[in-house]
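Hi all, a correction to my earlier message: I attached the wrong file for Annexin. Here's the right sequence:
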Amino acid sequence: MLLWVLDPAGRDATILNQALNGDITDLRTATEVICSRTPSQLQIMKQTYRARFGCYLEHDITERTYGDHQKILLAYLGVPRNEGPEVDPSAVTNDARELYRAGEKRVGTDERAFIRIFTESSRAHLVSIANAYQHMYARSLEKTLKSETTGNFQFGLLTILRCADTPAKYFAKVLHKAMKGLGTSNAALIRVAVTRTEVDMKYIKAEYHNKYKGSLAEAIHSETSGNYRTFLLSLVGRDR
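and the right structure:
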């Protein structure tokens, strides 16, 4: 309820502040929120973070992260990216080739190339790079990321790539993992339900149904109870 009464940027800023400055630092949640948002959403969210918490988001990230993970988060927050559908085919081919040279073609990984391309590319450009990479090298870019990178750095790259392609599919998987097996990750369930309801929830529900052959509303109903269940279902929407 405390998240829902805020505006979208306020919700993201609050989740990030809790993830970075709470009793337990949750870098995966912070990475998910940053790497799944559009450039315009990030700009408003950075301003809101500063206004609400009296410090720059970049400062808190610098305090809590290190290495390539820190570099990609700061670059993703700071580099302006086009949000349109325009793509330059020659630039796509060059970037796909550069990623291959920076990863699979050499011993070790040139993380700087991955950081540059993933933080400077529009979503449309990155999707085109992934398609070109598959065509040129008969291997998915996602598999390359999994073999060439590790930890939270890898998680950030994968989040950027998956959300460039289909954000709804990405969040359907987050929700499924939150409710799979024994117990429920209420933090993830609340985070996605509250922040995506006004963005793409109907598409998330469709992706969830396609992937897991069941209803998202029914899964939430079976994993929650009481007013909590009622409120989540009012956000997500019951199946007609």
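Sorry for the mix-up. The domain at 3-65 is CATH 1.10.220.10 (Annexin V; domain 1).
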